[in-house]
Amino acid sequence: MSDPTTGPERPDGRGVTARLKQLIAIGIALTSERDLSRLLERIVAEARHFTNAETGTLFLRDGAALRFAVAQHDARLDRATEREPRRPAATEFLEVTPLSLAGYVALNGQLVNLPHAYRVTPAGRYAPGGCPDALLPAQPGSVLVVPLQEPRGDVIGVLQLLNARDEAGQIVPFAAELEGLVQALASQAAVAIRSARLEELSFKDPLTGVYNRRYFALRIEEEARRHARFGEPLSLVLLDLDRFKSINDELGHRAGDDTLREAAQLIVASSRSFSVVTRYGGDEFAVLLVNTPKAGAVKYAQRIKDVVERHRFVHGPLTASVGIAALPEDVTQGDDLVPAADRALYAAKRSGRNLIEIA
After folding, report:
1. Which DSSP letter does residue 118 get?
2. What does the alpha-carbon distance between residue 7 and residue 165 come to, in Å, rounded to a whole number?
């Protein structure tokens, strides 16, 4: 029989060795995720599944406050049926004080594992706080709060887990033997978050939030090597906003900036997550379609052109001219993709705009 103060030895039928293997796999997955928002969601999801936690909340340190970044709650832990996680607004903050568990952990850098969240002494001054009321489980029970601590010791955030569940679905304390493993997961998460933040600063366009030309150059070189080795197709779509200059000239650069941000959001929303959407320069966007043949690129380009034409931009209607080039159908070397797509784009502009041309 398991010790009631520490919970079952194997709450989900797996031993520590199996969990170590799982932890290694999670670490690899986290360090390979480059998008910060998806990384944060994944950290919480993986931690919940790792511990069988009903609720998970992740905070990022923002000066003297903790900012809500991710909050997920669902008593069912089946990946296939899990509800869409609730994404807190960026304006939701929790002060970093010892009066909440998350604040205490942020200040002290120490893990807290409590079998009963609301039966804490002295005087119950700590609360699982940091979890919006709408996200608190109907039966708040066990709580595990872990610092996201970088190797040099800085706490950049806090991971809070509520209500571990056993195989029968009953709320149990978080097993003590999981503490070191969850701390290791949190340390891996902190390193991954730092890397993703640095990458965002290095590889994202500050105005639109999509990738910049530097990142595009690295990816097209990487994907060209992948094509040479495995024969995977690669397509490039160049898109130029027609008569964008008139918006800047007539309404000012602020209106132009608004329009570029709108266009970038439209393109990202209409693209697959692994497509590389880039602000290539001015009002020109480049989209690298990984493992996509020419026919797929044409369908994608038509969809993007239609979306731009139908969208009601704040500062007036816009259309887009598009040029397409594909490897290996149009060119044989990765270095030739951009010039080929650029020639096609120029032909679309010269032929009257709001057109698609193929290399």
Report:
1. T
2. 10
Collect all residues with Cβ–Cβ distance below 8 Å to 152 and sequence separation of at least 6. Answer: none
How far is CA 331 from each of CA 219, 223, 292, 335, rounded to the nearest angstrom? 17, 14, 14, 9
- Residue 217 CB contacts under 8 Å (≥ 6 apart), including other chains: none
Sheet containing 320-327: order of strands: 276-281, 284-290, 234-241, 320-327, 356-358
Q: Rg of the chain's alpha carbons, rounded to an integer?
A: 25
CA distance 26 to 327: 34
pLDDT, tens digit only, all 359 positions of the chain: 333 334 444 444 456 677 777 777 787 778 777 778 889 999 999 999 989 999 999 999 887 788 888 889 874 443 333 344 444 444 444 555 555 788 889 989 999 999 886 554 333 344 444 444 334 444 568 999 999 999 888 999 999 999 999 989 899 999 998 899 899 999 999 999 988 887 777 888 999 999 999 889 989 998 999 899 999 999 999 999 998 999 999 999 999 999 999 999 999 999 998 899 999 999 999 999 999 999 999 999 999 999 999 999 999 999 999 999 999 999 999 999 999 999 999 999 999 999 999 99
Q: Find, among 114, 138, 175, 148, the residue nearest to 39 by Cα.
A: 148
User: For the whole model, what pTM was predicted?
Assistant: 0.54
